[in-house]
């Protein structure tokens, strides 16, 4: 017999756990949270590369109804965020509702019964409400470069970091300079023999300003929670004020961000040639604004080379695996390659690449009015 429940939530990351906690708060107990992974956490379970951390301050990157007075620093690490998520599961007693290794194979609306029928891990769940709580950037994508499949070295995406492989004394090629790369490159650069960083477009980077949270501050947050809420409100207000960088025509805000980023680059990269490679030639806000205090200094290390042209192909040379870039025939012979290139953005969490179909009162424009989650 199919398990009947009021609500089925798909995804046990921040959204899924938050939904579960609020359902319990509202008195609902007949719900399940399905996740394809072996544990909770979503992106914070899957991304464990060296230096993985949040680029949103800890007092804001947390549930408003579950502030954490014990953050160790302004910007929490992956491990600390994962621990926080586990603590929320325990605090709100939702662990019994989580179902791991339950990838959703199908979700369809039963017109006659007016219920959702969800198939996962050989089980069928029947629910009144279906909540998609999966992230849009959950599928790492490695470009199909010519010759990559014949590459003899180790290849892995930063989101699937191979912690069992020792990068020390290896020649490493990193493809991409996004939010993940600027965190792990400073961690591995001092250890590898040589690091080739392939950069298609330099990002705008501003200082991160991470610092430890003092014991006195933690005590104050614990005894006076209003202080931490005030800090959260301050951070939220600052971030909202930067919205003009990404939308609208607030040139004053863009000018301020541009100046801060270029000053940061100038202070941390004394070499003019390298600095020119790392200078963006587009408006701030066209791509994600990044935060880092150690990325630029790591690129000045003698064993690090920034290659500021796209990768054209990988080829096997007489000397072993090598890359051949569009800038010319010169060989770059990395023995290991770590892509940090991109993600396959998921427009919706419907199985098999389907699109969301809302039903009756749950429909919100511009969603289509069809009533199934189809492939």
Q: What does the model show?
A:
By secondary structure, the chain is α/β, with parallel strands linked by helices. It has 2 domains: 4-138 and 345-362, FAD/NAD(P)-binding domain, CATH 3.50.50; 140-208 and 238-343, FAD/NAD(P)-binding domain (3-Layer(bba) Sandwich), CATH 3.50.50.60. It has helices at residues 14-25, 43-46, 78-91, 181-188, 215-223, 225-241, 251-268, 272-277, 295-299; strands at 4-10, 31-34, 98-99, 104-110, 115-120, 123-132, 140-141, 154-155, 171-175, 194-198, 205-206, 290-291, 304-307, 311-317, 320-325, 336-339, 342-343. The strands form 5 sheets. The protein has a 6-stranded mixed β-sheet with strand order 3-2-1-6-5-4. A hairpin with a 4-residue loop joins strand 4 and strand 5. The longest helix has 18 residues, at 251-268. The protein is globular, with a radius of gyration of 23 Å. The model is unreliable at 318-332 and 345-375 (pLDDT under 50).
Search tags:
375 residues; FAD/NAD(P)-binding domain; 2 domains; five-stranded parallel sheet; globular; disordered C terminus
């Amino acid at each position: 017999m199919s398990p009947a429940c009021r609500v089925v939530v798909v995804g046990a990351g921040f959204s899924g756990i938050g939904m579960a906690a609020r359902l319990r708060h509202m008195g609902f107990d007949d719900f399940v949270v399905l996740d394809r992974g072996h544990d909770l956490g979503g992106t914070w379970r899957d991304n464990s590369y060296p230096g993985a951390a949040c680029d949103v301050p800890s007092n804001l990157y947390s549930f408003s109804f579950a502030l954490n007075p014990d953050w160790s620093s302004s910007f929490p690490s992956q491990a600390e965020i994962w621990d926080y998520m586990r603590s929320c599961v325990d605090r709100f007693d939702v662990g019994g509702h989580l179902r791991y290794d339950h990838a959703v194979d199908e979700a369809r609306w039963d017109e006659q019964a007016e219920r959702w029928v969800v198939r996962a891990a050989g089980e069928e769940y029947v629910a009144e409400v279906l909540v998609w709580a999966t992230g849009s950037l959950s599928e790492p994508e490695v470009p199909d470069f010519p010759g990559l499949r014949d590459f003899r070295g180790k290849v892995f995406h930063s989101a699937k970091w191979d912690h069992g492989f020792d990068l020390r004394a290896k020649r490493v090629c990193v493809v991409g300079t996004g939010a993940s790369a600027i965190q792990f490159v400073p961690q591995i650069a001092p250890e590898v023999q040589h690091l080739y960083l392939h950069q298609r477009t330099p990002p705008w980077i501003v200082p991160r300003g991470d610092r430890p949270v003092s014991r006195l501050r933690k005590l104050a947050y614990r005894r006076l929670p209003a202080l931490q809420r005030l800090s959260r409100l301050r951070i939220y207000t600052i971030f909202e004020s930067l919205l003009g960088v990404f939308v609208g025509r607030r040139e004053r805000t863009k000018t301020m961000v541009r100046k801060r980023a270029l000053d940061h680059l100038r202070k941390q990269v004394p070499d003019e040639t390298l600095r020119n490679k790392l200078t963006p030639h587009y408006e701030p806000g066209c791509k994600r604004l990044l935060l880092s205090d150690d990325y630029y200094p790591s690129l000045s290390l003698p064993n690090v080379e920034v290659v500021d042209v796209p990768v054209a192909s990988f080829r096997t040379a007489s000397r072993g695996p090598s890359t051949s870039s569009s800038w010319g025939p010169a060989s770059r012979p990395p023995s290991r390659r770590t892509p940090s290139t991109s993600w396959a953005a998921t427009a919706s969490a419907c199985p098999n690449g389907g699109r969301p179909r809302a039903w009756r009162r749950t429909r919100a424009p511009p969603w289509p009015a069809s009533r199934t989650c189809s492939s």
